[in-house]
Write a structure and sequence with these properties.
single chain; 9 helices
Length: 255
């Protein structure tokens, strides 16, 4: 991005409570960071693009949704993100109890920092694990992933995923319920077993039904391969938005 001559703002989008995977605080932190850039030389009204992958896609997608109400003064010309974790109901099936359970554990604990009512569902082991992980970066192949860890083991509540607190938090953090005004570009690995393509497809369908402009590029590869494979197309799309080119509305391309 710097090589293309852009000013780059990198935000600590997990917020003051390190709330990894919480959408609303991530959006606010990204948008506040873009506002703050004006205090160090970025012109008010300058065209802005937002981009991120995986966890960064949570921040990017939610920033796109909340920008019209939270930061309408920002001139956001496009938002491009890839491998988006959009719905924790999907992630429960794809991550929990499997090789990606380390990622799912990090997301659950991150949510509990932003929604402390979730802590009432944790047993002693859950509380201990939250302390152990409080200073860790996300590691998909962590010990809990290698052990194929099931989050139900961190709670004494039967069927904890269907508890009213869990359902409420999951629904509040489901991407796709608010229309973004800026055009959107999503790239998604077709063989991504950690973050399945149905999440990206559902968000595109929902946003397009509201009248948003959303291009979904489905490309070969798993979660890791799709990041490198999809980034060039996303960055070129951003360059087109900065150049003032029009978008194609709602499109879905399978490569």
């Amino acid at each position: 991005m710097l090589g293309r001559g852009y000013a780059v703002v990198a935000t600590d989008y997990q917020g003051p409570r390190q709330a990894y995977s919480a959408g609303r605080v991530a959006a606010h932190t990204v948008l506040d960071g873009l506002r703050a850039s004006q205090s160090v030389g970025v012109a008010a009204g300058a065209p802005i693009a937002i981009t991120g992958y995986s966890g960064g896609a949570i921040a990017s997608g939610w920033a796109a949704q909340l920008a019209p109400s939270y930061a309408p003064e920002l001139n956001i010309v496009g938002v491009a993100f890839g491998g988006p974790p959009t719905d924790y109901k999907i992630l429960q099936r794809s991550l929990n109890g499997g090789i990606g359970s380390g990622l799912f554990t990090a997301a659950t604990i991150g949510l509990s920092r932003e929604y402390p009512e979730m802590r009432s569902l944790a047993n002693d082991n859950g509380k201990r694990l939250a302390l152990v992980q409080k200073d860790q970066c996300v590691d998909v192949l962590s010990y809990s992933g290698l052990l194929l860890f099931d989050q139900q083991n961190l709670s004494n509540v039967p069927d904890v995923f269907n508890h009213p607190i869990t359902r409420s938090v999951i629904e509040e953090n489901r991407m796709g319920q608010v229309k973004p005004e800026a055009p959107i570009y999503i790239y998604q690995g077709l063989q991504d077993f950690l973050i399945p393509k149905e999440g990206a497809e559902a968000v595109q369908d929902q946003w397009c039904a509201m009248g948003a402009s959303v291009h979904l590029e489905e490309i070969p590869g798993d979660h890791t391969a799709a990041e490198g494979g999809g980034r060039p197309g996303a960055f070129d799309w951003i360059s087109q938005r900065f150049a003032g080119a029009s978008t194609g509305g709602c499109e879905r391309m399978v490569r």
